[in-house]
Design goal:
Blueprint lengths: L1 H4 L3 E8 L2 E11 L4 E2 L6 E4 L2 H14 L25 H5 L25 H15 L3 H10 L22 E2 L5 E3 L12 E3 L1 H13 L5 H7 L4 E4 L13 E6 L4 E5 L2 E10 L3 E8 L4 E7 L5 H12 L6 H4 L8 H12 L13 H13 L3 H14 L4 H13 L3 H14 L4 H14 L4 H7 L1 E5 L2 E7 L4 E5 L5 E5 L4 E4 L4 E7 L5 E7 L3 E7 L1
Antiparallel strand pairs: 1-2, 1-13, 2-3, 4-7, 5-6, 8-9, 9-10, 10-11, 11-12, 12-13, 14-15, 14-21, 15-16, 16-17, 17-18, 18-19, 19-20, 20-21
Helix pairs in contact: 2-4, 10-11, 11-12, 11-13, 12-13, 13-14, 13-15, 14-15
Length: 516
């Protein structure tokens, strides 16, 4: 199943009658072929949100926060309505906040669930203000150590250098791994399946919590709408039979009520966890793949003996047996020449998605071949030519790429993706003198570790430790776009022409001193 789904590695904890069994499968990194073990660490993404919920309820149990009081009492400087929302609303995703991006809370006539990473970020600030500690320090003291979560952290640890899995994209390609410098309760949890299973058991049993608050965590706070995860910009829909508690989804399946959550970090690691509220049966699945959820539902369902709670409601993750995923897997293994007409008899959107995933996974030549077949088989569309242009550009076939982009613009003169592709093509065609490229090459100190810039005489490539290389497209004679990171970088020289540092512009300027 893992091989067919292009999932390199998986770690699973099975919870049965209060006992935890950890099972490792596959590879932690396809490039080194290192195996997943019982102590391999994965990025668990949004599985950190329930951990924050538990930590907040511990503070409430100690009388340090009232979850029904506006958070403005604990955190100064909040405006625009943020000061009025409560921890209960933030933990149940009913505060009217977006998932990403800053915005004032939407005033609702009655509670409505809308998944919000921004709400969790706000609550993290409240926790740090109340405790006077960083999130990482407080979690170590209040959660990780008491629960025996010895492998877990919200930031990079030195021992992760030989324990943490690498992420992988849709084609099974290595996508590197992050050395996370800053704790983010909403997204940066790093853990093992065994550690997270211990957390889930403690949470549903209410360990360390006042009895009333332990009950509140697993009590329905809001009813979920069918097929609506991020709901603020949508009209109210039909209510489902499912609910959200304080930090966890709640769903009745086969006579049991399960507490559950899922995680998805930048399409390179995906995770899932569920435990019945009696603490008797559960599963934690951590994968190092953008395809993880395509098999996690079936695996979890087999373990639990019923359909894995949450997946039908989330509705975003197709199974590895879906035709588009099977086509992607077939192309990765055999190339486009190995496909037949029936293989590409899919809806336009699904075929385009396969091509996009091939491009993102370093299979641009296959993506270009697929798009050419599609264009030959159906009426021309600007979207198809724009995607073909990008695939050809990444295959270093720049003349053909220009022709494809211009074909898109003939069909739709202001097509944004075609215009963006043409700009990237022009950047790829621009030639910087080899001696200048050599001056820029070197090692630079960044907040995310050493950035190594190398030159092959024609182009520059940037690479952070443990990350995939990123081609650098010239914007000017000394400024480049690190394409994979989508971040511009400018090299700065002194009066003698010696490069002293680089400047990265990502929401602000970051100086990267050049290292000896």
């Amino acid at each position: 199943m893992m091989e067919q789904a292009l999932v390199p590695g998986l770690q699973m904890a099975v919870i049965e009658r209060g006992q935890i069994r950890v099972l490792p499968f596959g590879e932690a990194d396809v490039q080194s072929a290192s195996p997943v073990t019982t102590v391999t660490v994965f990025e668990a993404a949004s599985l950190g949100k329930p951990v924050l919920a538990y930590a907040v309820l511990k503070l409430a149990s100690d009388g340090q926060i009232d979850i029904n009081v506006p958070v403005g009492r604990y955190l100064d400087g909040l405006t625009g309505g943020l000061e009025k929302v409560t921890a209960r609303q933030l933990l149940s995703h009913t505060a009217g906040l977006p998932n990403t991006g800053s915005a004032a809370p939407v005033t609702l006539s009655e509670p409505r669930f809308s998944y919000s990473g921004e709400g969790i970020k706000l609550l993290q600030r409240v926790v740090e203000r109340i405790t006077g500690q960083s999130l990482q320090k407080y979690m170590e003291r209040a959660v990780f150590k008491p629960l025996g979560m010895t492998s877990s952290s919200f930031i990079w640890r030195d021992d992760y250098a030989y324990r943490k899995a690498f992420g992988h994209g849709y084609t099974g390609n290595s996508a590197g791994r992050s050395r996370i410098p800053n704790a983010q309760a909403a997204s940066s949890l790093e853990t093992t399946a065994g550690d997270y299973a211990r957390f889930l058991m403690a949470a549903v049993r209410g360990e360390g919590l006042a009895p009333a608050l332990a009950q509140e965590m697993l009590r329905p706070q809001v009813t979920l709408e069918e097929g609506c995860v991020i709901c603020l910009d949508r009209p109210r829909g039909k209510l489902s039979p499912h609910h959200w508690g304080l930090g966890l989804g709640l769903e009745k399946v086969g006579g049991r009520t399960y507490a559950w959550h899922w995680g998805d970090n930048n399409q390179t690691m995906q995770s899932y966890a569920a435990l019945d509220t009696g603490g008797e049966r559960g599963v934690v699945i951590l994968t190092n793949s953008a395809n993880g959820h395509s098999i996690a539902r079936q695996i979890a369902s087999d373990v639990l003996g019923s359909d894995a709670p949450g997946y039908a409601w989330v509705g975003s993750y197709g199974a590895y047996t879906d035709p588009s995923r099977q086509l992607l897997s077939k192309i990765v293994r055999n190339g486009v020449t190995g496909t037949i007409a029936a293989d590409i008899a899919l809806p336009e959107g699904e075929l385009s998605q396969v091509a996009e995933r091939l491009v993102a996974g370093g299979r641009s030549a296959d993506a270009a071949a697929l798009m050419r077949r599609l264009i030959a088989a159906r009426p021309a569309r600007a979207d198809d030519y724009a995607l073909l242009a990008e695939a050809l550009r990444k295959s270093d076939r720049l003349t053909e790429a220009s022709e494809a982009a211009n074909s898109a613009l003939q069909l739709q003169p202001h097509h944004p993706k075609a215009k963006a592709a043409l700009e990237r093509i022009r950047q790829s065609q621009r030639r910087i003198p080899a001696e200048d490229l050599e001056r820029f090459a070197g090692r630079y100190d960044s907040p995310f570790g050493v950035l190594e810039v190398t030159s092959n005489g024609r182009r520059l490539v940037a690479r952070l430790l443990d990350q995939s290389p990123s081609e650098m497209l010239p914007i000017s004679d000394r400024e480049f776009l690190m394409e994979t990171m989508n971040v511009p970088i400018e090299f700065v020289a002194d009066k003698d022409g010696i490069v002293s540092h680089a400047v990265v512009r990502a929401g602000g300027e970051i100086n990267l001193p050049r290292l000896p």
